[in-house]
Structure formats: structure tokens, C-alpha cells
Amino acid sequence: MTTTAADQAPAPDNETAQGTAIAPEPVDENIWLEDIHGEEQLAWVREQNARTEDLLDDAEYTALEAGILEVLDSTDRIAMVNKRGEHYYNFWKDQQNPKGLWRRTTWESYLSDAPEWDVLLDIDALAAAEGEEWVFHGANFLRPAEGEPHRLAIIALSPDGGDANRHREFDVETRTFVDPAAGGFDLPTAKGNVSWLDADTLLVATTADGLPKTSSSYARTGVKLRRGQSLAEAERIFEIPEDHMMALVARDSTPGFERTFAVDWIDFFNRTTSVLRDDAWLAIDVPTDVNLSSHREWLMFRPRQDWNVAGTTYPAGSLLAADFEGYLSGTRDFTVLFTPDEHTSLQSWSWTRNYLLLNLLHDVSSEIRVLDPARKDSTGGWASTLLDACPPLHDVNAYAVDDEDEAEGDDAGNDYWLVATGFTTPTTLMRGTLSPGVASYTLDAGHDGRVASTHAVVKSSPSFFNEADYEVQQHFATSADGTRVPYFQVASKDLDLDGENPTQLSGYGGFEVSRTPAYSGAIGRAWLERRSEGIAPDDGSAPHSRGGVYVVANIRGGGEYGPAWHSAALQANRHRAFEDFAAVARHLISRGVTSPRRLGCVGGSNGGLLVGNMLTQYPELFGAVSCGVPLLDMRRYTKLSAGYSWIAEYGDPDVPEQWEYIRTFSPYHLLRDGVDYPETFIWTATSDDRVGPVQARKMAARMQAMGIPNVWFHEALEGGHAGASDNRQAASLQARSQHFLWRALAGKEGSRH
Fold first, then answer.
1. How far is CA 126 from CA 93, 133, 729, in A?
2. DSSP character for 149?
3. What distance in Å separates the CA atoms of residue 137 and residue 165, rounded to the nearest whole number?
4. Which keywords label this protein (predicted)?
5. Is there a contact between 371 and 386 (Cβ–Cβ < 8 Å)?
6. pTM, two decimal places
7. How large is the average pLDDT for residues 672-679?
8. Which residues have CB under 8 Å from 520's CB, separation 6+?
9. 721, 732, 737, 751: which is the annotated catalytic residue?
10. Catalytic residue among 605, 645, 666, 732
11. Which of 415, 446, 540, 645 could link 401 by a cystine bridge, Cβ 3.0 to 4.6 Å?
12. Interval 198-210: pLDDT, tens
């Protein structure tokens, strides 16, 4: 039998070039699987895939996949749009167009039940013509001259769904790519970003054509690429150290406020932003953990830690504004726009032409405020009005339609979108307008200014399951250190609290990402409405059929309560995220919602690390674990794909002192003999160039070699970090995970314990 981590002898110590000791790496019998595209390695993958498909791809799976695909391919779902000039642009996938259509329409047509779409680019046809499995990753328009239509765009296309893109110039009037032989831009596939400087010049940060990359696999340099030049000929205008995460260069082309920016993204949470002045970069003087953004004359600041300026401390998660030019010249006159409290955090903000929209969470339910810079409240801040558009336990986001639209007779500059959703509320798209005047909704006490608003429903998503049969509840569990951790529970209104309900617990807990209420027809069909054949309670009463319970945990490491909620689980404190998740599991069990044999957990990426630690540290709480595109080998994660970029989140395992705490949450090294592990499904994608597939491969291989029963592995051969490049792949991925969990948890006897 293969030795477990507890028995492995460490490899010899070595040193960095600077003579600093590097933490030893435990012996890794599966390191051969790190050759992602090796013939022998892919043969192992195909063998594993066949084994898993033999288990899961039965008649129930086929029906489940078809039901999920129907949701994803539905022609009745909302076609979300972005406004550019007089047109509204959308990217659309369905059964007839699995790779998708980039298209546009007019506002009048969009309002109709059957809009007339002008197809600009058919990705399926392009893939067939060029023999490349293109995945559309967006379009970036050149700002046209005043009075001219939007015509030229840079299209980002991934050859496999990964993060690396080929950027090609496209003419929306001729519906063709601009021929490189005629000077059209066509950048080789690589990671990076592209921004228009002017009609004949791009600002590019890329790793293509031999340009240097960082240790995180992203671009180190920014170049100015003129039409007709190669990247090798382009002028290098910006460069960062190799051990920083990535370089970005971009142009803000807002008329009257044109600015060129460069960002040295040091790590996930620290960066230096510079603006080009007199042909030289001028760094904006703020701590590296203060997030910056600009809008016309305003410079905005959101500190990740408490920020002391001239004796005044601005708390982490607050939002400040200052005059852009005044700040650069040395003045520090801030206006405080938002201050967090223990219940309320700022999630995002968006400018219309004259107003600022703040998207907040209050105990993980949405709240939206409208701020007016032209009017002051009693404290000297910008007048704030509460937008009456957010029902409890829902996620509602407001953002500008087109903040630069000043077209006469069709001025949308102060228009905003509202997107509202909930676990049992299909998504609704609304559009509103902001203007000075007497508001029809609540104004903060003591605030003097008001912003009037009207909004109306534009589109509504269809229903995919019988939502009226279910209710959403919010509960709070107490973690190991006494912290109250919220979670959402979606279940039948007649839920029996007898501990026998198949329950799926989902979480993430990292990178300040918030898990908010969201409608999912796939979860409704694949979990809530699925019925067991009959589960007998332990009290001896008659068995009866029941559906699934779906739970989302808002654990630390996420952003539900702002930066402090995230930083509480960083690096050496990572265990708090896992303790929070385990506390939610125990709370569900104590309330009688479920029991260990009926409770499963699911997570992807950082959420895969989360459930990998549930598997290895809390196996007694779960009957099954579905672990997707995961981090699992935390000793080598910095050497795999883009892993180096996450040192700020997890720590550096090469540093002996940091490896001492990282090893405590490295699932690959926590496996032990003699443990009754839950049934385990590990899934990933060959083309994932963010986390990569090898950590999932190695975990499955080690568990199987240790003789742990019911360990299953599946690797999609394309699809990137999402594991799917089209709806059919997405439906297959979701169906396998859901079917695995149901089989393990909803059997008459349960899977274990």
C-alpha cells in the first residue's frame, strides 16, 4: 500500500539563491501526474473518466442532464445586454448555438417579446471555419469620434476556455475581423489585457511572443502597440518585478477626463496604481491595500485595512472620495461616502453620469443607496437616498446603463439597471432613471438632499421549478471562537426536522467573494425537486419520500461583511473558514434538518480546498463530498498554474514558518490510514490554466492507492477553470456532481455512519 503523508520522509533541505532555507517537500509519489498533457497521464485520466461514467451515467443521470440543459438552453431566459452607443449588445448560447452568438439590437426591439437580433459573430461558425474550439471571452470597443457609431472592437477568444486569450480586431459594420495584412490587430494567445489608446494604438500587457511573465504566469510588462507593429517591435512602457502578480495598462477615454493608467498588481490584495503625466508614470500615493477607482473629476478609495490620514482613521471597507487633481497635488480632503458597521458592508459601486450607486449587504441581504455629489447632507457628505428595490433575503444589484450617454432626446446617462434574484425568485431585470427632486422612497434621517427614481421591469426569467413549494430561511451558527456565521437554507415548506433530509451544503470562503441569494433552475430541478424512494426515520415511523435541502454558508474568508470578514481567515487563520463551515454543518444536524449520513458538501476552486478540508479534518460530519477544480496540494500549489498569485491568501509554503501552518490545511498531506472517509467525487478540467487539473489528479490517485473506498474522479478535457466551455458541458458537469451527491445521501440507509 502507498505510504501516507504521516509516514513520508522529507526531501533534503535546499536554499534559495539568497541563501534562505526552503521548507522541505514531502515525498510525492504522484508528481508524475503534473505533466498535464502527457500521454501516460491522459491515459490515466481517461481510465478514471470511464470508471466514473460507468458509475454515474445511468438513466437518472441522463434525465438529470437533460433537465439542466433545458434550463441552460432556455430561449426564455433573460438576454442581458450592455449599451454601446445606440445599440444593446448580448452574448447568447442555446441548443442551436452551443458556442454562442455575439449580437445586438435596439432598445425598442429589446423591449419586445421577440427582439430582432443583428448577429455580429457566430462563434460556432468561426470555430468550424478555423478548426479551433473558440470560447468567446468578451469585446472591448474603441471609443468613436463624437457623432460616430461604435465600430471597431477587440474580441477576446480562448482556444480552450482557459484564461489565455487571442485578441483580434473586429469591425461590427462589415461583420469581419480586420485583416492583419491590412494592419488589423491580431495578438497571439496569451494571458493579459488589452485597452484602446486611440484608433491606431493599443495598450497591451501580455506574455505572448516571448514577453516576460511573472512567477504567477501573468504579464510583467505593458507595451504600446501601434497598428502594423509586432509585439516585439512595440515600445515597452511599464514593467514590474517577476515576483509580483501581474501588470495591467489601461486608458480611460472619458471625454475631458482622458487618462492612462498602469497597475503593478503586487498580489491579490496589494497594488500600486500610476497615472501617466508628462510622459512619466506618477504613482498615486496611497497604501498598497487601498483600492482605487476614478470617475471624471473624482478619485475613489476603499481601504482593506484601517487607514490613518493626518490623524483621522478611516475604517477598512469604507468608501472615500477626493478631487482627482487635488489629491495628486497633495491635498487630502476626503468625503466619506460609506462607513461599514458590524452588519453592513459595501460590495460594489457604479457611477451614472451624475450619481453614485452603492450596492450594500446587510446581513447578506441587499441594500442600495444613491449618492448625489451635488447635494450635501447635514454632516457635509453627499446626500444619500435608500432605493426601495430590495426585498429581504434577496440579491439586488444596481449599475449604470451608460454613464456617458448624452444623446439628445434619448439621454441614458443617469439610467441604471437593477438585477434582482433570490433562491426562489427567478431573476428580474429592471431599468430606472435618477434625477433631482422629491423621492418616492425613504430618505435617511438628517439628510437634506433627495434623488428621485423610477424603475420598471424590463425582462423576467422563467420559472424552472415549483418555487411556491419552498421557503428560504436564514440561520446563524456559532463557530469555534464564538463568531456568528450566517447561512441560507432552502427547503420544502413541510420539511420534517427528523435528521433524514438529503442536504447539500455549499461554501467558498476566500478572496473576499460573497455568496449571496441566487436563483438556480438547475439546483431546483436537480436537488430540491428530486425525490428519494423513501427514507425511514430512526424513530421507526414509516419511510416516506422527500426532496433535498440546499444550504449556502457565508463563512469567513468571504466578503459578506467586508474586508475584516475576509482577513479573519487569511493565511495562519485559514482554519477559521473551516471551523465556520463545520459549525454550520453541526447546526444543521442539531436542528434536525439532516444527519452526517444525509449531509454532503460541495465546493469549487477555493471552495474545493474548503471541502477538501471537510473531507480530511471533519469526515465524521459528512456522508459525501463533491470537490471541484480544487486546490489540494498546498505544498506545491505555488508551482502549479497560476498558484503563485495566491500567496497573499494562503501563505508561501517555501517559507518554513509559513509551511508549518499551511500544512494544517493541505488536504493532500492530511490523509490518514484507518479513517472512515465520506464518499468522494473529485472533478476538474484539463484546460484549466488557473488552478490546473493536477492537484485533483494527485488527490484522487493517493486516496485510491490508500484503499479508501468510493473515491471517484472525472476530468473534462476542455472547459477552462469553469470546467465547461458550452452549455452541454456545463450541464454534464452539474449533473454528475448532483447525481453523485444524491446517490450517496438519499439511499434508504444513507452512505455511512
1. 14, 9, 19
2. P
3. 8
4. Hydrolase, Protease, Serine protease
5. no
6. 0.92
7. 98
8. 423
9. 721
10. 605
11. 415
12. 999 999 999 999 9
